[in-house]
Design brief:
The protein contains eight helices and seven strands. With 278 residues, the protein is an alpha/beta fold. The protein has a single domain, classed as Rossmann fold. A seven-stranded parallel beta sheet has the order 3-2-1-4-5-6-7, sandwiched between helices. 46% of the residues are buried.
């Protein structure tokens, strides 16, 4: 199995960045993509809306359903899932990509930002998984190889990954713990639950919005490395590949891809390791 043709993917945060890159790679196979994100109108500094993403997906060969979704809102999420099922007949894959970030220490993290990270990263991931799971169970019963993929880091209890941004670390590790638990909970049903994380910083518009990160894009890789790694994971046998914390370049190496120079934002520049990777 090496194609997502005819599969339906529900991707959160798919209007731009990594989420859109994953959607575009699936579109090349002829997949159906639910673009579940908040941006419906042009942002003053960030490019892309759910509608522009849907247009790109369809030009690439996929079918798209753009839906305005704030994954913090339970009713909105459930309505979006029902619309996806009505449009495409089911859901085969959930990609929990949407995330909020604040690389701030304890005293510099307003509770409003703390609440946002936990509402999006932890609660939103759990909610979207819960809403999609009945349809993923149906996909498993129909032998359609269902997957949940979280854009979340490997669990690492080294203090260095907590001390500079404890709130963000806990929020992202909440997503990782969903992988750990749900993979075992649904293993026997044939639903794969895995995580994917980059070896290096990834050049996205969102990165430039993070204080201190705007000048570091040259040392990044392009979102397409995660898109291709995600594709490799999502085409694996769900019964055999679950509960894993994948790193993008390791996934590609397993697929025989070792020259990663084409993914460099600025070829020849020293790459900047992502956080959570020793």
């Amino acid at each position: 199995m090496n194609s997502l043709q005819g599969k339906t993917l529900f991707i959160t945060g798919a209007s731009r960045g990594v989420g859109l890159a994953i959607a575009m790679r699936a579109a090349l196979d002829g997949a159906n993509i639910v673009v579940a994100a908040k941006t419906t109108e042009k942002h003053p500094t960030l490019l892309g809306t759910i509608y522009s993403a849907a247009e790109e997906i369809e030009k690439a060969g996929g079918s798209a359903l753009p839906l305005p979704v704030d994954i913090r809102d339970e009713t909105t999420v459930h309505n979006a899932v029902q619309q996806a099922v009505a449009k495409f007949g089911g859901i085969d894959i959930l990609v929990n990509n949407a995330s909020a970030i604040s690389l701030t220490g304890t005293l510099a993290t307003p509770m409003k930002r703390f609440d946002l990270m936990f509402a999006v990263n932890v609660r939103g991931t759990f909610l979207c998984s819960q809403a999609c799971l009945p349809h993923l169970q149906a996909a498993a019963a129909a032998a359609r190889n269902p997957h949940i993929l979280m854009l979340a880091p490997p669990l690492n209890m080294r203090p260095r990954w907590f001390k500079d941004h404890v709130a963000y670390t806990i929020a992202k590790y909440g997503m990782s713990m969903c992988v750990l638990g749900m993979a075992e909970e649904f293993r026997a049903q044939g639903i794969a639950v895995n995580a994917l994380w980059p070896r290096t910083l990834i050049a996205t518009q969102a990165l430039t919005m993070v204080p201190g990160m705007a000048g570091r894009v040259d040392g990044c890789r392009k979102p397409e490395i995660l898109a291709n790694a995600a594709h490799a994971i999502l085409t694996r046998d769900a019964r055999a590949a679950t509960g894993n914390f994948y790193i993008d370049d390791e996934v590609l190496a397993e697929a025989g891809v070792t020259d990663l120079s084409r993914y460099e934002a600025k070829p020849g520049t020293t790459l900047i390791p992502d956080i959570f990777i020793d």
